[in-house]
């Protein structure tokens, strides 16, 4: 027989523990014990409670502590909080009479109530029937109204006393009797279960229980877990657990729910939760349980799809950091105004147009980020009496945030500078960039603590003269505006380190700039009518100056008249009308690292430029340079050289001595040939030779193992060069007069690339086999085509190199084997010497093993020597052919000489170098006759 519930109570199942609990929607009460409608039903329900002794004892202790704590908390919270009805929203809110704070959410202390007790702190439940509390906006007081009788009262009507006494008596009686029943039931359960032993049914595997004395088999109605209870339906039978599990979750918990659950669990365990990160969850709403985390200091809600933030956020009374960036917010919650602890607020990347001026009451804010929104102005209100009472300010604006140190309002639609921003005297960083402000107020100069001021991408036509009062200013960015001049007082900003005035309409620079002796970066580029600022020598710490796209004529004399220890390392003068390299640029020989002179009218390069030996980048593109003078190798630290779009017909040979060069751009010139040792630039990564008149590329280019980009488009190459076949290299051979027969050589070139890759990996045996296969394929042609001849020459040379390396490895292996065999021979020989005297140094087995190993070593040495003989013949032939083909002749001759030295062929070595000496004299005589 089932026991009916008291009126207003419902039953549900907790998914985590799978236990039934009971709740009252009207009073928000919850209980693990079934509230019975009458006393008999209550005692029957108690009879079914089965717990262990330990659990019962713990429960008694918990019940007593909870009861004492709740009584104290209820009395305290009841004296502090009032539940008030708001007619405008038709909802109740809670008001703290001591602190003046209000909350739409039920305060945590009021939620902790004794089971079956009235809702402590809920004045509507503590009032007589028909009465309710209402808040009077005029007097700011609570009064009470009886809608049925029309009565009203400023004092709270009292409940009949007998109702409270009856509830207390019932609560005490229930707890006392429930504790006794739990202990008795738990002990009886232990005794009963000791008479049974559990088994599994052989047929279906279901659990059965056998009485130890009578051996009677039964299926227990109660499992051994005393916390798990079968439910009894109205007919007395066992009901389905699944059918009664009404609240079981059908979908998995979201990541946000998991995070909030974990935070609540920590709070319940008296572990304060200080930070909650709910960012990047694509959440549309945030669980209201977050606002119950009373210790929370950092809340990250960024990267979601929130359209609004509930006013209940004001319940986070300890909040310090709040990040609601990257959402869909159109405003900020007014309730945030009471969060006096808030220090950092990030609401960037939203759709905020405006918000309540009451938020300026957050006077503790030190960092405010409202960038990437759609605001045209900041909230400002004047003459509001209520705000006057709360803030003591007639004008309520951002000026109330006197503790603010960082303000970011960039990427909005501001049409004027925020009003009274000059009152934020603690500001160190202000970002007003990417707006539409035409001017700054003169009071802007009152921000004496300002260090970083970003005003780029606005509509500023002038700057206030008060800017000179910013004595702490270190960075000023006024680029992309409409400025025609700078205020003379700017020279008073003695701490200025970075000044960017690019992309304006400046025509001259005030002489006061020379007082900025701390300036490190000075950018005035893209001011088309600017006169050269002849103040650079006064800027003793200047490191970077940019004056490109300024329409400058030749740089004045002494423009760079610096002392020897000046730190200037970057000079940008591109896209002007300069006809010669600045005369005193060599004075920067110890510091200059980057020089941009592209897009000018320079026709020659003076050799004094080569005195700047610290240069790392040199840009001379789009000029009229015809030749590069000798001495380029002095720039031995150069990594980037751009001389494209000039009139060069030849490149100096000492270019190949720029061993640190990574980028070389020779495009759009009139080059017919390149230095033969171009491949010695082994750090080269980018090579642009396009739009010239080259007919061939140096064979040393195969040494460019680090190159990632090669362009030789629009030249006169008759055949595709046999290198740069690595798949990781971008190569452009377009618009060259390649013959159609080049298609037949493509597979051969692919094979060359594969073999060279093995050679680079020191897989000499595999590479030699590939080159041999390639030469066999070429030999099978009825006649060697002209376009295949270079491939054959390359394959012959590289196979000779592979054979030489194989010989070196074989000789090293033979030497190692000889050392090991010498030790074995010594050991065996010593044993044989002492055998006539009957002395045993080694046992017979050890002698046998040593002799066997010695025989193996001898056989291996024979194998290696045979291979060396074969490879020596092949290497000699290949390298001699390479010398005749003039393919890497110097390298081939040197390698062949090294081979003769290693194989002790002294006569061949003498003959080789004698021939080289004779050929060198003949070549020199022919060279002199040609001149």
UniProtKB/TrEMBL annotation:
Keywords: Leucine-rich repeat, Repeat. It comes from the Eukaryota. SUPFAM superfamilies: L domain-like, WW domain. CDD domains: IQCD (cd23767), WW (cd00201). The keyword Repeat applies. The keyword RNA-binding does not apply. One of its GO terms (cellular component) is cytoplasm. PROSITE patterns: IQ, LRR, WW_DOMAIN_1, WW_DOMAIN_2. Residues 3-37, 75-109, 125-159 form the WW domain. This is WW domain-containing protein. It comes from Aphanomyces astaci.
């Amino acid at each position: 027989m089932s026991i009916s519930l008291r009126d207003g109570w419902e039953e549900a199942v907790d998914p985590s523990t799978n236990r039934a609990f009971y709740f009252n929607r009207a009073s928000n009460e919850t209980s693990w014990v079934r509230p019975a409608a009458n006393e008999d039903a209550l005692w029957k329900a108690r009879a079914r409670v089965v717990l262990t002794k330990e659990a019962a004892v713990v429960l008694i202790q918990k019940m007593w502590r909870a009861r004492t704590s709740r009584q104290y908390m209820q009395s305290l919270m009841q004296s502090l909080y009032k539940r008030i009805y708001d007619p405008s929203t038709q909802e109740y809110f809670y008001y703290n009479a001591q602190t003046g704070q209000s909350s739409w959410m039920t305060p945590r202390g009021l939620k902790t109530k004794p089971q079956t007790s009235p809702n402590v702190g809920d004045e509507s439940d503590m009032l007589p029937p028909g009465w309710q509390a209402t808040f009077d906006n005029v007097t700011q007081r609570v009064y009470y109204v009886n809608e049925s009788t029309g009565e009203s009262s400023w004092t709270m009507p009292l409940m009949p006393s007998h109702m409270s006494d009856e509830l207390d008596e019932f609560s005490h009686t229930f707890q006392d009797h429930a504790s006794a029943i739990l202990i008795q039931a738990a002990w009886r359960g232990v005794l009963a279960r000791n008479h049974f032993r559990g088994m599994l049914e052989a047929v279906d595997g279901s659990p059965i229980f056998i009485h130890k004395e009578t051996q009677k088999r039964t299926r227990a109605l109660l499992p051994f877990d005393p916390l798990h209870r079968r439910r009894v339906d109205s007919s007395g039978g066992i009901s389905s657990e699944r059918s009664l599990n009404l609240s079981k979750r059908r979908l998995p918990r979201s990541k946000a729910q998991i995070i909030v659950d974990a935070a609540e669990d920590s709070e319940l365990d008296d572990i304060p939760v200080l930070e909650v990160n709910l960012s990047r969850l694509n959440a549309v709403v945030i669980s209201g349980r977050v606002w119950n985390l009373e210790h929370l200091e950092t809340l990250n809600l960024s990267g979601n799809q929130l359209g609004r933030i509930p006013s209940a956020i004001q319940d986070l009374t300890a909040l310090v950091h709040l990040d609601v960036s990257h959402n869909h917010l159109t405003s900020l919650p007014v309730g945030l105004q009471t969060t006096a602890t808030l220090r950092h607020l990030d609401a960037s990347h939203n759709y905020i147009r405006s918000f309540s001026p009451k938020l300026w009451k957050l006077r503790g804010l030190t960092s405010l980020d409202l960038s990437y929104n759609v605001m045209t102005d900041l909230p400002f209100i004047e003459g509001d009496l209520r705000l006057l009472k709360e803030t003591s300010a007639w004008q309520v604006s951002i000026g109330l945030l006197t503790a603010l140190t960082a303000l970011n309002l960039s990427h909005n639609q501001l049409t004027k500078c925020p009003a009274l921003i000059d009152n934020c005297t603690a500001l160190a960083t202000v970002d007003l960039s990417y707006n539409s402000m035409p001017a700054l107020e003169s009071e802007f100069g009152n921000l004496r603590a300002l260090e970083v001021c970003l005003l780029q991408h606005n509509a500023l036509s002038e700057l206030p003269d008060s800017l000179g009062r910013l004595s702490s200013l270190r960075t000023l960015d006024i680029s992309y505006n409409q400025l025609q001049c700078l205020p003379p007082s700017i020279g008073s900003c003695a701490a200025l380190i970075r000044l960017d005035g690019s992309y304006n309409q400046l025509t001259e620079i005030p002489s006061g700039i020379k007082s900025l002796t701390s300036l490190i970066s000075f950018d005035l580029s893209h001011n088309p009518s600017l006169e050269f600022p002849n103040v650079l020598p006064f800027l003793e710490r200047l490191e970077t100056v940019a004056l490109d796209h300024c329409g400058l004529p030749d740089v004045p004399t002494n423009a760079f008249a610096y002392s020897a220890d000046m730190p200037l390392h970057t000079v940008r003068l591109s896209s002007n009308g300069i006809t010669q390299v600045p005369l005193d640029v060599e004075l920067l020989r110890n510091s200059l690292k980057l020089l941009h002179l592209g897009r000018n009218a320079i026709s020659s390069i003076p050799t004094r430029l080569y005195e700047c030996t610290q240069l790392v980048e040199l840009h001379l593109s789009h000029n009229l340079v015809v030749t590069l003078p000798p001495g380029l190798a002095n720039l031995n630290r150069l990594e980037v050289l751009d001389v494209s779009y000039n009139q060069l017909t030849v490149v100096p040979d000492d270019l190949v001595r720029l061993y640190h060069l990574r980028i070389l751009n020779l495009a759009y010139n009139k080059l017919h040939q390149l230095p033969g040792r171009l491949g010695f630039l082994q750090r080269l990564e980018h090579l642009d030779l396009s739009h010239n008149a080259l007919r061939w590329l140096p064979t040393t280019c195969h040494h460019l193992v680090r190159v990632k980009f090669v362009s030789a488009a629009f030249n006169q190459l008759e055949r595709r060069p046999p290198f740069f076949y690595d798949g990781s290299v971008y190569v452009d051979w377009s618009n060259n007069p390649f013959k159609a027969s080049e298609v037949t050589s493509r597979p051969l070139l692919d094979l060359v690339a594969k073999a060279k890759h093995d050679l680079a990996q020191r897989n000499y045996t595999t590479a030699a086999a590939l080159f041999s296969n390639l030469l066999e394929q070429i030999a099978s042609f009825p006649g060697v085509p002209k376009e295949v001849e270079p491939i054959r020459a390359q394959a012959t040379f590289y196979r000779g190199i592979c054979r030489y390396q194989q010989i070196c490895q074989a000789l090293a292996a033979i030497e190692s084997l000889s050392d090991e065999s010498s030790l074995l021979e010594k050991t065996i020989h010593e044993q044989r010497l002492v055998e006539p005297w009957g002395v045993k140094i080694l046992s017979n087995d050890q002698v046998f093993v040593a002799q066997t190993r010695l025989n193996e070593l001898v056989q291996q040495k024979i194998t290696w020597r045979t291979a060396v003989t074969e490879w020596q013949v092949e290497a000699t032939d290949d390298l001699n052919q390479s010398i005749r083909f003039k393919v890497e002749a110097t390298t081939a001759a040197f390698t062949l000489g090294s081979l003769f030295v290693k194989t002790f062929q002294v006569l061949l070595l003498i003959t080789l170098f004698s021939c080289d000496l004779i050929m060198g004299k003949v070549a020199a005589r022919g060279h002199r006759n040609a001149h």
